[in-house]
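User: Fold this one for me? It's Pyrroloquinoline quinone biosynthesis protein PqqF.
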Amino acid sequence: MSAPAHPHPQHLTLANGLRVSLRHAPRLKRCAAALKVAAGSHDVPLAWPGLAHFLEHLLFLGTQRFPTGEGLMAFVQRHGGQVNASTRERTTDFFFELPVPTFADGLDRLADMLTHPRLALDDQLREREVLHAEFVAWSQDAKAQQQVAVFEGLAADHPLRGFHAGNRDTLPVERETFQQALREFHAHFYQSGQMTLSLAGPQSLVELEALAQRFSEQLTSGPWHPQAVPPALMQGQAYSCQPGASPHWHHVIACEASREALDFLCTWLNAPAPGGLLAELKTRGLATAVQASAPYHFAGQALLDIVITRSTQGEPATQIQALLHDWLSFFAHSDWTPLREEFALLNARQPQVQDALALARNDSEDLSEQGATALKAMLDSLHLPPSRHPWQLPPNNPFLRPPIKEERAGLIRGQTSAHRGLRTFAQDRSRGRREVAAPTFSQALADSSGEGALYLRWQFECAAPALESTMQAVRESAHQAGVELSFETAGNEWLLKIIGLHEPMPAILEALAQRLNQPQEAPLVPTPMMAIRELLKALPACCAASHFAPGEQPAAWSTARWHGLGLGFPAACEAALKSAAARLPGQPTSLEHTHQDLSGQRVWHEVKTDSTEAALLLFCPTPSQALADEAAWRLLGHILQGPFYQRLRVELQVGYAVFSGIRQINGQTGLLFGVQSPSVPLEGIVAHLQTFLTQLPALVRSRANAGNLALAQQFSPQVLSMTQAAEWLWHAHLAGHPSDYLARLQALIQSCGVDELLLAAQQLNDAQGGWRCVANGSHTGDGWKPAG
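Assistant: Here's what I get for Pyrroloquinoline quinone biosynthesis protein PqqF.
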């Protein structure tokens, strides 16, 4: 197993006041930076709501040294990394992840955009329209509006009650007073004393410190400016509400507990184990989910929001509140010693499996004695009556501890190796049992990283069952132990992905098999989401070869067939997984994966969404499964990604959710384009897409051979994380490609020339592999065939 991350980051304060946190993790293939500026939406002058969020957007629009096409976002995308930013109440966060060889160049771009933004007026006018589009979407988002309604119980003068997203009315960029406020805000807060930089990667601590020092030297030096302390959160200490027609009941508590103390409380409050709050609410038919979190914490003030999803809305929430208070009273007077030990194990496990970006942003801490004392005081201050219900504390997570070693294989208890070869009655009885076919295990990934991936795919005779609710408890326990479970339903197929540490995985698979063999729970109530995300969730089912009517009775396990693929496991773990897989429901067999051949057709799928904004996905499969086609289309997607975003998002202002790139869906490779717009209808979005695609030949000629090496390097074992490699190899397996798929694809991308790219552009425009449009409205214009 590879060396884990150092258990504690190294903290430094450099000469110019920049605070630095460094994490050395030899197992990582990439490096990440997370920069926190101690300035957020609540630090903005009252006259200009949204100014902090607006500035965050403007910083990405290029500098004199690094114009838009060479700025941080374009650079990270070109090298297959991740990049984003977020404006919170009292902080603004910028974070990115890159392969190690390009990481220093990414840091240079981050430092330059923070220090030398252009702030050009024409950029501001365009970006204000983007923020206004986001504001329109935010105002229609059910979850966002619920949060606004919840905060209405706070004190009227607290900034959490205010509007901070920004829109056309609050950002008068044409006025000099606004421009002065924008420049002053940037000069006051965007300097070294107000920043904290976190780095995580495989480099040594000495190398990471050198990178941080180089970054700091490019910043404007300045002192720490304390942020103003806000007024009290509310007059009382707690209140309850249920916004509008939402099934979610909120109990909000204002307190002074530390962040790690609230994380500790929320961990056990959310636990689904028998004897806990959620289990009791389910037993009584009162609720289906409990989700406690601390959405706000600053200057000693904290807000605890306990959200309970009610089973029915007709009955008053009196019983729910009484049970919640009773559980809090029980917890306040419990012995936390075993829970604190478990909490420490949880915090220690996550850095062992987190990718570079998550590790750089990880600031979790164990519950200290001081934190425990403060949490006890906070719970006592609620003046709750003594608990009357026989609650139980959650048991230890069994996946967090090494499995109990079993007797040596082939020996019955009491036997020694001298008895090997002697048949026992137990062995005789097993002779007639059916031999169970196990998952296939591939050696395409090394087994030395301590992590592996197992893909299990079931095929049913009719619609696949919805199993997320049944898996929820195992999913949470597995996540705590460093293993991620994800589920995907597409037509009559159900896919389960198990990715993470080797050690707990066999026990997790055993628990999953036990759950799947039990009666299934009712499906979870879907969480409202923005339209483009709803379309992305529906896309795999739209691409499936078989479709079933909504509401059709799900199939039974008895007629299901399944197969699996394991990657990155040593022999001992393979054997344990095969043993656990023998208990999975259904018939293990080999399955052929078929794709619907569109061959020149343009098919339109209409998917209903909560949002009324126009949202559309266009998925264009490659004309064949040949690796040469995939390589050319990947390079084409690599070249057009930046120009597509620039044209539709920046220049035309078509929408705020604009993206493109290669996707693999059910083993099928294709180019995916996505747009959500508050102002342009679906027919307009389609027209913009088609216009852009017709310009691809000219784009190819202007950028030929510009991205071969950068893209090919993304498939190198030196930069691929286990999760990324496993995902690509799974889709390669579905497509029937050989186990050396990644090496072959890398070579083909490097050798791909202009002629191959022009052919790919022509194939794309001619829809030789078909076009599949998934949108939240009906098709318009000729040439589109409604999905049958």
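One thing worth pointing out: Residues 438 and 581 are 7 Å apart (CA to CA).
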